[in-house]
Amino acid sequence: MASAAVVDAGDAPEPTVRNLLDQDSLKWVFVGGKGGVGKTTCSSILSVLLASVRQSVLVISTDPAHNLSDAFQQRFTKFPTLVRGFSNLYAMEIDPKVENDDLSGEGMEGFLSELTNAIPGVDEAMSFAEMLKLVQTMDYSVVVFDTAPTGHTLRLLQFPATLEKGLEKVMELKNRFGGLLDQATRLFGLGDDLNEDAMLGRLEGMKDVIEQVNKQFKDPDLTTFVCVCIPEFLSLYETERLVQELAKFEIDSHNIIINQVIFDEEAVESKLLKARVKMQQKYIDQFHMLYDDFNITKLPLLPEEVCGVQALQNFSRHFLTPYKPALKRGTVEELESRVSILKSALQEAEAELDRVRKGKQAA
């Protein structure tokens, strides 16, 4: 496989996310990819970095398994909450389904449940439209979406079409049953909860919001999609699928973050890690070949999780400056460090051998 070196260093885009901070016009930033690759950490750090250059930032988790609260170590709800330590960064976690308290009554709820059974995904679409309505009234300068794994994200991009189907279904029911629906609601004392015109109005309103936002999503000045992955075959495959789908939906994407990289220059002694380095490099080269016009940011594999505002801020430097291992293989410092580690390991092994011998003698 050809190396990344085939791209002339002068032509290759900068391997950082600085371009996202420099693009003042950006309004919507989506962060997506396969499950378990570090999307929440990346979207949290991107929102922290954007907060340093923008007036107000909102980070939203649309993943049912909410991890924003874990990343910032602060409890978030479906309403924007100020992140501790910031004056202009807010976070919220929404469930991609219509909640009962969002509905105006039992009649409407029953009707909506019928509708959601008839059109898969319409409940998520309606919830998303309600959330976008809310976000638009708040006037944040940029909104970062921490999306669910790839399949859910692609559904989210299909919401305008889903709501279109919902409207067609309601119209079909209206035409089929005429005024029967109104009579039934009055007969059972449900008032105007199930008034088809109100229902149609609500769906029309949501469709208008989604279509308006959808136009913004297709504008590269306003919207971009950041793909997060790890240097493995399945993640490369999933990223390719995601990039193709985004192109189909006319959504701009020119940033890829490769997470959990073990750097070859790092002082790696374990045979297992050396094998992983070799395997990862093969896929990193493929990423560079496939996406030579993308900003590709490589992040190091860490021995600990990135949790809490301080840890996020510390790790954020690798998003703006390419990572350089502290100790390079073959340098005096690296060899001294290795000798020190080996001496320490030898002392531990000798102490353990001593304990085992004493144990045998005692037996």
TrEMBL record:
GO BP terms: tail-anchored membrane protein insertion into ER membrane
GO function terms (MF aspect): ATP binding; ATP hydrolysis activity
InterPro entries, per database record: ArsA/GET3_ATPase-like, ATPase_ArsA/GET3, ATPase_ArsA/GET3_euk, P-loop_NTPase
Keyword ATP-binding in annotation: yes
One GO CC term on file: GET complex
Domain ArsA/GET3 Anion-transporting ATPase-like: 27-318
Record-listed ATP binding positions: K34, G35, G36, V37, G38, K39, T40, T41, E232, N259
Pfam families registered for this protein in UniProt: ArsA_ATPase
Highest rank taxon of the organism: Eukaryota
Keyword Hydrolase among record annotations: yes
CDD domains, sorted: ArsA
Coiled-coil region list: 332-359
Record key words, sorted: ATP-binding, Coiled coil, Cytoplasm, Endoplasmic reticulum, Hydrolase, Nucleotide-binding, Transport
Active site: D63
Localisation per UniProt entry: Cytoplasm; Endoplasmic reticulum
Subunit structure: Homodimer.
Protein role: ATPase required for the post-translational delivery of tail-anchored (TA) proteins to the endoplasmic reticulum. Recognizes and selectively binds the transmembrane domain of TA proteins in the cytosol. This complex then targets to the endoplasmic reticulum by membrane-bound receptors, where the tail-anchored protein is released for insertion. This process is regulated by ATP binding and hydrolysis. ATP binding drives the homodimer towards the closed dimer state, facilitating recognition of newly synthesized TA membrane proteins. ATP hydrolysis is required for insertion.
Sequence similarity: Belongs to the arsA ATPase family.
Classification via PANTHER family: ARSENICAL PUMP-DRIVING ATPASE ARSENITE-TRANSLOCATING ATPASE, ATPASE GET3
Designated name of the protein: ArsA/GET3 Anion-transporting ATPase-like domain-containing protein
Lineage: Eukaryota, Viridiplantae, Streptophyta, Embryophyta, Tracheophyta
Gene it is expressed from: gb23052
